[in-house]
Amino acid sequence: MLKALVVDDSSVVRKLGKNILTQIGFAVSEADDGDTALEFCKAQFIPNLILLDWNMARLSGLDFIKEFRKIPGNESCFIIFCTTENSLEKITEGITAGANEFVMKPFDTNIIRDKLKILGVIE
C-alpha cells in the first residue's frame, strides 16, 4: 500500500487531504508543521507522497523540503505543495527546492487525482 503524509497547520486541510488520499488508496499520516513532519520522516518512514503546506510556523514547507531532500532514501517520494502561493517566483523556488507539483487551495479529489496521474503515482 502506498503511504502518504499530509503536512499542514490547519486541521481542516489535513482532514481533507487525508480523506482524499484514503479514498485513492493511500495509508495516510498527518503532521501539523514542518518540524513534526521532518522528525516523522526520520524516525518512522519516508512516505511515497507528501502533501505539503507552504506557510507554517516553526518550519515552513519550503524549509522542510530543503531538509527532507537531504535524508537518504527520499528520492522516490513525491511532494505536492498545497498552498495559496501561486506566483511564478514561488513555484520556481519550490520546484528548485525539490517539490514535484503544486496545487492551489482549496483543492478536491479530482485535482489531487490528476496530479498523481501526471506524476505517475497512480494510473
Describe this protein's structure.
This protein is α/β, with parallel strands linked by helices and 123 residues long. Helices cover 43% and strands 20% of the residues. The protein contains five helices and five strands. The protein has helices spanning 11-24, 34-43, 61-68, 88-97, 109-119; strands spanning 3-7, 27-31, 49-52, 78-83, 101-104. The protein has a five-stranded parallel beta sheet with strand order 2-1-3-4-5, with helices on both faces. Helix 2 (34-43) packs parallel to helix 3. The radius of gyration is 13 Å and the shape is globular. It starts with a strand and ends with a helix.
Strand content: 15-25%
Annotation field: number of helices: 5
Q: What is the radius of gyration?
A: 13 Å
DSSP E strands, number: 5
Q: Structural class of the helix and strand makeup? A: alpha/beta
Shape: globular
Query: What characterizes the major β-sheet?
Result: 5 strands, parallel
Question: How are the strands ordered across the major sheet?
Answer: 2-1-3-4-5
Mean pLDDT: 95
What string, H for helix and E for strand, traces the elements in order?
A: EHEHEHEHEH
How much helical structure, as a percent, in the residues? 40-55%
Cα(first) to Cα(last) distance is 14 Å
Oligomer: single chain
Given as residue ranges, the uncertain stretches (5+ residues, pLDDT < 50) are none
